[in-house]
């Protein structure tokens, strides 16, 4: 449904997006991650048809977004980082207005507004003016305006930014609920959000895609992946473990527990248990680490120019 090919965007001498390509199909919730200034918003705006690329192509459902933005945008719901809301309108008045801008009138307009209000749980504040809304309800009003035309593609720029944990959960549940029939692409800094709702994650750094995989597969790249933490009693444990071919490093942590790291991500728990049996150690509290997305994010994006980059023009 979305196909981005070789997207580049320069702002003066600054190259914000540097050759980004990806394809996304129905049913995907794509998390778009990266450090501040990595190019997430710029990419999403190009996909949404609000910013022309310097070079490269975006197609949604086969429609070229830059050359046919009106037709492309009929398929896209876009929730920018900060949505311009008309503060003195009521929530339903605002949604009615946006529905009209989208070309709906009469009972069709009312039906669509009611549906968006219902989907985003806005009933309690539908008659309230926007300037009186809490951050969570403002965010949901922004989401509701992106849903009015029932688009197949939803582009959400930091949809849970600034929300409290309960509100975050509400928005995440809504995203999950809407995902099966659509493509949802969301940018976020919140890695737990990616684990909770995304079926795929693209990490962007200095305008380039540096990882593109499922969250579970990305976690296997973590230094912690398959590390084994355990308590053990016996003689010569650490030196013996150091001899095992798949073990790279051994650490002893504060409470006396041992952490063994695999050389290159292989499973080492069975090797440790076999060594324990052979050497008559008593091993308990054994825990195998499944890897951490924040580790991977840091490993991949911690470079001096991960966010900012200048180009010679
Ligand atoms: N309109 C603009 N004019 C000039 N530079 C811009 C403009 N928009 C973005 N940039 C620059 O492009 C780069 C990428 O910005 P972008 O907002 O896409 O990053 P981001 O990954 O969304 O960051 P954040 O996580 O902070 O929202 C940054 O260096 C930013 O300063």
UniProtKB/TrEMBL annotation:
Where is the ABC transporter domain positioned along the sequence? Answer: 2-231
Pfam families linked: ABC_tran
What keywords is this UniProt entry annotated with?
ATP-binding, Nucleotide-binding, Transport
Q: Which SUPFAM superfamilies match?
A: P-loop containing nucleoside triphosphate hydrolases (SSF52540)
Among the GO molecular function terms of this UniProt record, one is: ATP hydrolysis activity
- Source taxon at top rank: Bacteria
Q: Which InterPro entries match?
A: AAA+_ATPase, ABC_transporter-like_ATP-bd, P-loop_NTPase
**Which family does the entry's similarity section mention?**
Belongs to the ABC transporter superfamily.
Q: What protein name applies here? A: ATP-binding cassette domain-containing protein
The organism encoding this protein is Tichowtungia aerotolerans
Cite the source lineage.
Bacteria, Pseudomonadati, Kiritimatiellota, Tichowtungiia, Tichowtungiales
């Amino acid at each position: 449904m979305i196909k981005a090919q070789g997207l580049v965007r320069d702002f003066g001498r600054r190259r914000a997006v540097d050759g980004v390509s990806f394809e996304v199909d129905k049913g995907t919730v794509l998390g778009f991650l990266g450090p501040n200034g990595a190019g997430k918003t710029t990419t999403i705006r190009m996909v949404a048809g609000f910013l022309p690329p310097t070079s490269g192509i975006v197609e949604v459902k086969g429609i070229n977004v830059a050359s046919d933005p009106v037709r492309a945008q009929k398929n896209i719901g876009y929730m920018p980082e900060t949505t311009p809301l008309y503060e003195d309108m009521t929530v339903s008045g605002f949604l009615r207005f946006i529905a009209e801008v989208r070309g709906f009138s009469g009972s069709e307009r009312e039906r669509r507004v009611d549906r968006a209000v219902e989907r985003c749980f806005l009933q309690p504040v539908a008659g309230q003016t926007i300037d009186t809304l809490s951050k969570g309800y403002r965010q949901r009003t922004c989401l509701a305006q992106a849903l009015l035309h029932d688009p197949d593609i939803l582009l959400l720029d930091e949809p849970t930014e600034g929300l409290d944990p309960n509100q975050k959960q509400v928005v995440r549940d809504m995203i999950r609920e809407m995902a099966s029939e659509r493509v949802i692409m969301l940018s976020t800094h919140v890695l737990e959000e990616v684990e909770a709702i995304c079926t795929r994650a693209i990490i962007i750094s200095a305008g380039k895609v540096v990882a593109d995989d499922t969250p579970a597969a990305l976690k296997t790249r973590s230094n912690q992946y398959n590390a084994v933490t355990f308590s053990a009693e016996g003689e010569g444990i650490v030196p013996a473990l150091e001899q095992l071919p798949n073990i790279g490093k051994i650490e002893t942590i504060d409470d006396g527990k041992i952490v063994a790291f695999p050389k290159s991500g292989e499973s080492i728990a069975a090797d440790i248990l076999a060594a324990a049996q052979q050497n008559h150690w008593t091993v308990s509290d054994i825990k195998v680490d499944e890897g951490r997305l924040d580790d991977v994010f840091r490993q991949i994006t911690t470079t001096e120019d991960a966010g900012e980059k200048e180009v010679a023009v």
